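Appendix B.2, paired examples.
Example (i):
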Amino acid sequence: MKKIVIIALLFLCLFSMNYAQQNIGQNIIKKDKTELTKNKNMENTDMKTVYDFLKQCKTYYLATIENDQPRVRPFGTIDLFENKLYIQTGKVKNVSKQIAKNPKIEICAFNGNSWIRIQAKAINDDRIQAKQHMLDNYPELQQMYKADDNNTQVLYLEDVTATFCSFDKEPKVIKF
């Protein structure tokens, strides 16, 4: 039953993204580089909205590509650090190797009423401070990971396009 729900959710995300692209002119909040510089508060609000939604969902699904095959797996870590949105994994995992080859990722999450689909590039941040911040916010990970080990990996999301969807509202697209 869980597999059917996950497949249905992924289908809904794909459908909603196509719908959003067809109605792109009405619903996208446009931001160019100069606007981002002028309006950091708006960026923070958009990023915080995405962060809050993913935290509420607790589990999201991260998609990568391996050769020509999509790979999707559940994730649960999301962190705000130095005005960037971060995820966490282990360097020994296939997901880390896939991101190293192709940093373009997608994330999909569902809260029971609405869903989000995120397109982004995942950029490695090897700094101890970034790793420690993630581990401080997820103490249960400290049994498996340490900020100074050779396995802990944190990645921040760049060039983010997040589409919020539901069955009863127009999609809302934000970029940061």
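Example (ii):
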Amino acid sequence: MKIIAIGDPHLGNTEKMVERFHYPPNYFEQLSHNIELETPIADLLIIAGDLVWGTDFSEAVDQLDALQNLKAKNISFIEGNHDWWLPQYSTMYAFFNSPSFYFLSGRTLILENVGICGIRGTDKEASTKARELRLLENALMKLSKAAINLAICVIHFPPTSLIFQNPDESFAEDNFFTLMEEFGVNKIVYGHCHTDQNYKIKPYLKIDNIELYCTSVDYFNWSPVRIL
């Protein structure tokens, strides 16, 4: 199985991405092209949040269609902190319940012998931290009962301070990583971090037997990150 991942495509407001994050105006075209160049085609494309700017679901539909049309056999995605358009999870589960375009937050997906779960996560100061930790624990418990050989967890926020080059600059909530470690997760996919931020991270890090991948597209010149 071939798995690739991207994070933070931020569709729907190119001007903001150019001005605020210094993305090139044609960044999504570059990203789409680089995914099309993947040979063989990926069995799964993971999108680690911050999909679309907007405050209402109706504003996001066209951009979600563009993401759904990226070249991969299956696509699974979570929301990020800028996906303000997101309706209730029950609505998302009803609309995006096929592996071809699957909303992963708060639940799991099994493809062959690989199990994947996802949550948005939070930073260490967020009031929603306890809720996100409960969602993660419930999803990990389901994965632990599945007949899989590999467990992948997708989270928008970085899950551990260890990815920061200067730990004093960390805003990560380390309890997310602690839970993933307890349940035997093999790979962690996250986003949220950008190259223009003052803090610096390690985009790839291996802690014991757990591999952590930052997938924010500006870190990788608008190309997907190979996960498996």
